[in-house]
Structure formats: C-alpha cells, structure tokens
Specification:
By secondary structure, this protein is of the alpha+beta class. Helix content is 40%, strand content 22%. The strands form four sheets. Strands 5, 6, 7, 8, 9 and 10 form a six-stranded mixed β-sheet that branches. It has a four-stranded antiparallel β-sheet with strand order 3-2-1-4, sandwiched between helices.
C-alpha cells in the first residue's frame, strides 16, 4: 500500500494492541537501477535477522514463529521492485502481512512488539501532502487521490459517479452549442448535489485539501449547490475532465499545488517569526523534542529531507554521525524526526514539511509553541 491509503481509521487499527509479537521491518529502497540492485540483498538480510530474532525470543512459540515466517515469505514474494519508492515497511503477525511503500526513507530495522511501528508511515504521509481532486462535469464526477508525486483515481464513497440519463452527452452538446442548457437543467443540479453529498462523506472519513477541476460552467454550478466547494483550496478550469488520465491531471494541478505550497511556506515563515517575537519558539532537535514531549507544540516545521540519528543522553539528544549504530542500544533513535512528527500530530499539532535549507538557521526543524 502507498501512504495515501493511511486513513485515521487504518492508523488506529495498526496501532491497536496485538498478541505478541507484531513484527515491523523497515528499510530504505531505491526507485531506479542500478541502485535498486542492492534492495533484494538488503531485504534478504533483514528477513534473516527477523527469523533469527523470532527463533531466539523465548516468548515466541515454535508455531507462532513458523506462522510469522510464512507471512514474511509471502510478503517478500509479492514485492514488485518496479514499484519501489524510498522505503519499504513490512508488517506481519501470525495471521496477516502488510506491505507499505513510502516516499520517505526509513532506517534498517526489525522490531518485535505488541503493536506495529507506525512512525515512518505517519511521517511519510505528512511529507507527501495528500489531497483529493474532484473532476466535475454535467454528467460525471471522479475523485482522485493525489500527492506531490502521483495521482490515481479513487474508488471510494460511491465515486466515480455518473448522471442517470444515459443519453446525456455533454461532448456532443458542446459541439452543437447547447452546453449552457446542460447547466441550467434541474437534473444536473440534482446530480451535482449528489456528488457533493458523497464528497462530504469521503472528507469526513479522510479529511484532505480539496482541488476542483472542470470547465467553467460545471465549476460555477458546483459552487452554487455544493457545501464542499467553499472549502476547496484550489481549482483548475479545464475542459473534458472525465477523459483526464491521472498523469495528465497531475500536470494540470501542478500550478495550483505549487501555489498552495508557496502560500504555506510564507505563512509558516510568518508564524515562526511571530513566535520568536513572543518567545513561543523552539528550534533544533533538542528544544523541539522537549516541547513535543510536553505537548506544547502548535506547529512543527521540518525540512523535507531532514533525518538524523541521535542518542538520548540525560534527557537531551546528541547527534550520532560517524559511529556505527548498535541496534540493541536503546538510547539510539535512528529516525527521531519521524518520531517527533508522529508525536506532534498525535498531540494535535500542525505539521508541515518545508524546502531544504529554509530552516538552516534553526538546525532544520522548528516549532511554534502553544504556551
């Protein structure tokens, strides 16, 4: 699965307590050759480590050990190297396995616990900035799940939707000059009200920024009848949206996505400046880590490619750079940034990833504090 599948409900399910052991395996991967040639070897080594850990654990019975090994082997057999992103996460118990591909790297790790490890999934989704894009026409509406890198049609909440009148053909009517009558029709208004109702249900389950795509009359009428339209963060006025391939849609959305990103970059910079002025600011890993632990962070800003291994030393974080990390060392946190992102989101903070070097003066991570 990709990170846009990580809804609040699914995250809650992943975090629930399971019979020990719930196994989480994470590793960095590569999108292209020749770098991706090493991924298969790295995965085999980690699977071997997982098998050894299971066999050596006195709390894991022989039957459970064999069942989890079988689930891991099934997961490994299902992997398609051509779909690799920047990290792989395998989750397994004796009853199931899950495969997650992340657009954000993660360290090599095997964890046995009573719940799955979710910090890398949560941070990757936050960085990917998932959104919904609704394409609207007089007789058709489709919903696309997108990130900064991809978009795909979402078959959720009843989407895609088509108007019940099969003979209705907006392309033909556009050629004959009758397009305005389509959008004056009460049938069309009712159809778009249905689209809005379905969309509201999707947004209630999985809230994301919404973009609207369609020809001007379709968007104008949707604005009139829709509750969701007023909350759209961007729109693209373009013809024949029902015929858009996901790749074409992403190209058309790019200016709106870039504009929103630039808007947020300025807004975040302003909020951090104001926070410094009123002494409600934390900068650098150590300060931010302490503030997140106290539940004081209202906004967390992180440079997109910032990751750091640290050692916890007397309630402070010390960067680990050149030395080899011992996986059994409980004081070492290999993905402390992802851990902070997850903890901040759990405490109700807003989290934004910003351009590299934009927080250079603050050691690449900064926070606006609530108090």
């Amino acid at each position: 699965m990709d990170t846009d599948a990580l809804t609040a409900g699914l995250l809650q399910e992943l975090r629930r307590t399971r019979p020990y052991p719930a196994l989480s395996l994470t590793m960095p991967t590569h999108r292209r050759a020749p770098d991706n040639a090493q991924d298969a070897v790295r995965l085999r080594n980690l699977l071997s480590e997982a098998h050894n850990r299971l066999e050596a654990d006195p709390e894991v019975s022989r039957e459970v050990c064999a069942a989890i090994k079988q689930q891991l082997d099934r997961a490994a057999g299902e992997l398609d190297q051509r779909r690799a992103l920047d990290a792989l996460v395998l989750l397994a118990t004796s009853d199931e396995y899950q495969i997650w591909r992340l657009p954000r790297t993660a360290p090599e790790r095997v964890v046995l616990s009573d719940s799955y490890l979710t910090r890398n999934l949560v941070a990757a989704k936050a960085q990917a900035r998932p959104y919904w894009a609704l394409t609207v026409a007089a007789d058709h509406a489709a919903l696309f799940s997108g990130t900064t890198e991809s978009a795909q049609e979402a078959h959720v909440g009843g989407f895609p939707l088509s108007a019940p009148r099969e003979e209705f053909n907006p392309q033909r009517m556009e050629r004959t000059g009758d397009t305005p009558s389509n959008f004056a029709s009460e049938d069309t208004r009712n159809f778009l009200r249905t689209v809005d109702e379905k969309l509201r249900a999707v947004l209630a389950t999985d809230p994301r920024p919404l973009y609207l795509v369609g020809i001007a009359p379709a968007l104008a009428l949707f604005d009139e009848v829709s509750e969701c339209a007023k909350d759209a963060v961007g729109r693209v006025t373009k013809g024949a949206p029902a015929d858009n391939a996901p790749r074409d849609l992403l190209t058309e959305l790019r200016p709106a996505l870039d504009a929103r990103r630039a808007h947020f970059a300025k807004e975040i910079e302003g909020r951090l400046d104001a926070a410094r002025g009123r002494k409600a600011f934390a900068g650098g890993l150590d300060e931010v880590w302490a503030a997140v632990g106290e539940g004081r962070v209202g906004l967390l800003a992180v440079e997109e490619h910032y990751q750091q291994t640290v050692r916890v030393d007397q309630e402070h974080l010390k960067p680990v750079t050149d030395e080899v990390v011992d996986p059994s060392d409980a004081t070492v946190r290999e993905d402390i940034v992802d851990e902070l992102v997850e903890a901040a989101l759990d405490s109700g903070a807003e989290v934004f990833f910003v351009a590299d070097d934009s927080l250079k003066a603050h050691s690449r991570i900064a926070a606006e504090l609530r108090f």
